[in-house]
Amino acid sequence: MGVKRRANELLFMSSAVLLLLVSPNLVQCSSKDGEEEQVQRSQFPDGFFFGTSTSAYQVEGAYLDDGKSLSNWDVFSHIPGNIINNDNGDIADDHYHRYLEDIELLHSLGVTAYRFSISWTRILPRGKFGDVNPRGIMFYNNIIDNLLLRGIEPFVTICHLELPQILEDTYGGWLHPLIRDDFVHFAAICFKEFGDRVKYWATLNEPNHWADFAYLRGVYPPGHCSPPFGNCSAGNSDTEPLIALHNMLISHAIAADLYRKHFQVRQGGFIGIVVLAFMYEPLRDEWMDRDAVSRALAFTVAWALDPLVYGDYPPEMRHCIGLKLPRFSSKEKELLIRGSIDYIGINHYSTLYIKDCIHSTNCFSGGDRPIQGFVESTGERDGIPIGQPTGKARFYVVPRGMEKIIDYIKHRYNNMPMFVTENGYPSPIQENEQVEELLQDLNRVKFHKAYLSALASAVR
What we know:
By secondary structure, the protein is an alpha/beta fold. The chain is built from 17 helices and 15 strands.
């Protein structure tokens, strides 16, 4: 059992992310999908980080150990039917008890960076309603110190899709403005306790994805949605995602302002945010689908990043959604655009086709709704997949998408420094697969070679 756990863990960690720093000076280049690439570290500039990434709930386990309280995921995953096979993170990779072994694994891979998140419920089990948990502080101090001892740079995400359940129960979590004070209180403790050694901070992981999957589709806690996106017991898919992301962005801005005023000069760190960034291509070579690609990128990537760079939501969203899209006050706009990010974190996994649903008929899955930007995505055209399928639906191997999404973000956000904070390959699930078969993970090797090669071309 122990051997199998270690094999699976190593594969999981390498699939979560295998590269970090992207040079701010990028150009659009081409790459050939489907060919196995040869890539070397020498193809990347000095100072380029190669790393792996995890999140607290997915690896730590020990879900009630040493003063930790219940998180939103602890509660959600224990409700029968919410998770496939009723799995949960109670034990996960048992990283809480085996972090020293895991750091040795990282060291053996030769990585120079490790991105991990801090469990809000380990540090503040009751949010602002309770005290700081010293055992939680000690756990993350131990991780940071042991990483640095081995020459591995810690990249820390303050909030990775996880918050104390008490905040959800008390006032509704991200749907209520009170969450802003709670988040900033948590962030301040992280800066104070760990900022002398942590130089790279991300306030939130994938707020755009979180708002989508938690409040539009209802497949993440708190499981809110409405038809046609799902049949949840609560929620409004047309408005709640907008409210939740709005509160996340303002929370980020206040926390970043606090960091800049009280910590950054003394600690010498950088602060940013991480967004999920699929790339999109037109389903048909027609102007309407090309326009739809622009809307799809605006309704996913720019939804989270435009406010942090320009102080407001994308005009494409204002045009489609109108008055339902929240507005920032003048003070909030000042916080958002006053240097609230030093870098952009990009989680890029795949590329999909986009079909226009303004001028087209037969759109499904809510593609004909304003909240979706009147677009529909698919992984196939005329029955042919856009790239090699993987073990996760809608995740295809399309290396050219890496270059294209980097180029899009470069041009939209004035060549701002970027980190590719996640990229990976979901293995197809095979029954009765043996350890030796898991270790001969050739498709994952090919995936990373191809995507790293695409990134190297972009850097050049």
